[in-house]
Write a structure and sequence with these properties.
The structure is a single chain. This protein is an all-alpha fold. The protein is built from 14 helices and no strands. The two termini are 33 Å apart. The N terminus is likely disordered.
């Protein structure tokens, strides 16, 4: 799962600006992470772009192409070794990591957040099912929450309470991506629904494979979206705590996540036939709700 899942997939290019990396990178390939957003202070656009590059390239190791699991894990291990070189004060072997190292040192970014991201991506290679909700949340803690943590450090707003709010938002948006993309993840042999809850609602993998929304599917999805909405709402105060353009972008992100949940509920959870997307009307509504 992509690291930018701290922000729903449908919140994408409308908040992005083109950026220049040392090596060419196709920004359009990178879904939704707010790279050099127009709402970010200019001084933070490059640091955010480098965090994004680390996260996106790491995730591509786990997800893209036809590499074997062994190759994928070794690629991720290579990034881990680069982080270890930064920790030891040594020059990274990968050229653009030198610029990342400078950003890490300048802003006091926690290296543990980068290691957590690598851990989650490695898990995507080796783990395809989750026994319960606690296991799913632990994955979210490492795949999505670190991004919010790093951004709060950049913003100078990484208080314990703000980090708690951020984790609630990032984890909920990761979950929204799971519920939005059940069919896409199935093609990668990944099921992020808690297995015990699937059993409770009599949902089978055969049903997912067939894109079958019958039986208790609607009830099951309503349970997932309801719990996710409560988690998202618990982090909502952060949108008011963060000031200026950063706060506005956070409120837009939260509003976007809520709208996707609304759309999943509106189709009775049938994300197989009607994958939820945000329309121009949604964007206008999100903005109106975010500026007041």
């Amino acid at each position: 799962m992509a690291p930018e899942q701290c922000f729903p997939r449908e919140i994408r290019a409308k908040s992005l600006m083109e950026i220049s990396f040392p090596d060419p990178v196709a920004v359009d390939h990178y879904e939704n992470f707010p790279v050099a957003s127009i709402l970010l202070p200019r001084r933070l656009r490059r640091p955010v772009a480098l965090i994004y590059r680390f996260a996106r390239e790491s995730d591509d190791f786990a997800d893209e192409g036809d590499a074997t699991d062994e190759v994928r894990l070794e690629q991720l291990a290579g990034f881990s070794r680069e982080l270890q070189r930064i920790e030891r004060g040594k020059t990274p072997l990968i050229p653009w990591f030198s610029e990342l190292a400078a950003v890490i040192h300048e802003h006091g970014l926690p290296l543990s957040a980068f290691h957590d991201l690598l851990s989650a991506f490695a898990q995507d290679v080796t783990v395809k099912r989750y026994a319960n909700y606690a296991e799913v949340l632990d994955y979210c803690r490492r795949s999505a929450d670190p991004v919010g943590h790093l951004l709060l450090v950049l913003y100078g707003a990484a208080t314990p309470k703000n980090l708690e709010y951020s984790s609630a938002i990032c984890s909920s948006l990761q979950l929204i991506n799971f519920w939005q993309d059940v069919a896409i993840d199935w093609k990668k042999d990944r099921v992020y629904f808690p297995q015990d809850e699937m059993q409770q609602y009599h949902i089978s993998e055969t049903q997912i494979a067939a894109g079958d929304g019958s039986g208790r599917w609607t009830e099951f999805m309503a349970f997932q979206t309801g719990r996710t909405r409560a988690l998202l709402d618990s982090g909502r105060p952060l949108g008011r705590i963060l000031k200026g353009r950063i706060g506005l972008e956070m409120r837009m992100i939260i509003a976007g996540g809520a709208r996707i949940l609304d759309r999943i509920d509106a189709v009775n959870g049938d994300v197989f036939r009607q994958r939820p997307v945000l329309t121009k009307t949604d964007w206008a509504l999100m903005l109106a709700r975010s500026v007041v």
